[in-house]
Specification:
The protein is α+β, with helices and mostly antiparallel strands. The chain has helices at residues 5-15, 19-28, 33-50, 82-86, 88-104, 109-114, 123-134, 176-189, 201-217, 225-240, 255-262, and strands at 58-65, 71-79, 138-147, 150-155, 161-168, 246-247, 250-254, 267-275. It is elongated, with a radius of gyration of 25 Å.
């Protein structure tokens, strides 16, 4: 049957696919709109399979905090190239993903991808559809939740970095400003844990061994190596765990001291730092 320009335009409006792709799908489906939609979806699946191993170093990171301030979510939707990250359809998909995360209160990335959209199809289905339209890999590379007495978020100006920080013992006061400062600290200084207790044992053992080897190379006595290594480990904790780091805006105090000065006993329970690229 003849495929009219009106038919092609109607399918394009319904799917967002390109004009030529829509015409090709309608021709292959003999004008059957539902069959044409399935053809376009299969095109997305083919691209997803073909480009599965491609690197996704561009994209957008979004954060959201609930109205009561006790839960935060962060999503990283990634793609292969910067131009695609600026496309309206990609930006809208990222926003839709966050709306789904909030409405479904998804606990994991898997739950988020399986959550139904307005049309009843999963978020993963919509991602696959957009891959078919755009022609490159798109993926939710990170999805995290933080729940605490008070959660504060921070979005870096490049749109590719987001932070959530959970605070406790806030004393019922507005701690948003100091929370933002701590979130920006996390963004800039990349701590690996809240405190030394959060550093995994493999990392601790590696740092001790590195410290010993450095001291040995400097000609230090074998009997002193353990003590020297422990001193280096404490320096590692100070540089790489949030509460022990010097506060960037005022290095005379640690982050732990900054929080305690703001409200006695206030501290960080958890944080998430998500970046693309």
């Amino acid at each position: 049957m003849a495929i009219t320009a009106q038919d092609v335009n109607k399918l394009r409006q319904e799917t967002g696919a390109g004009m030529m792709d829509c015409k090709k799908a309608l021709t292959e489906a003999n004008g059957d709109f539902e069959a044409a939609k399935d053809i376009l979806r299969k095109q997305g699946q083919k691209i997803a399979s073909k480009r599965a191993d491609n690197a996704t170093s561009e994209g957008i990171v979004l954060t959201h905090v609930s109205e009561d301030g006790t839960n935060g979510k962060v999503i990283a939707l990634a793609c292969e190239t910067e131009p695609v990250s600026k496309v309206e359809d990609f930006q809208n998909l990222a926003k839709a993903a966050m709306e789904t995360a909030v409405s479904a209160n998804a606990a994991t990335k898997e739950e988020l991808l399986a959550a139904p959209q307005a049309d009843g199809r999963s978020l993963q289905d919509h991602i696959t559809d957009l891959m078919g339209k755009i022609g490159e890999k798109i993926d939710v590379i990170s999805y995290e939740n933080v729940t605490a007495e008070k959660v504060v978020n921070y979005n870096h100006s490049n749109g590719k970095l987001g932070v959530l920080v959970g605070l406790t013992n806030t004393g019922g006061t507005d701690v948003t400003e100091v929370g933002k400062d701590v979130a920006m600290q996390i963004a800039a200084m990349k701590p690996i844990a809240v405190d030394k207790d959060g550093v995994d044992s493999a990392t601790v053992e590696r740092e001790i061994e590195v410290g010993k080897e450095q001291a040995r190379a400097e000609g230090k006595p074998e009997a002193m190596l353990e003590k020297i290594a422990m001193g280096k480990l404490n320096k590692f904790y100070k540089d790489n765990t949030l509460l022990n780091q010097d506060f960037v805006k005022d290095p005379s105090v640690s982050v732990a001291k900054l929080l305690d000065n703001t409200n006695k006993g206030m501290t960080v329970t958890e944080f998430k730092r998500v970046a693309i690229g």
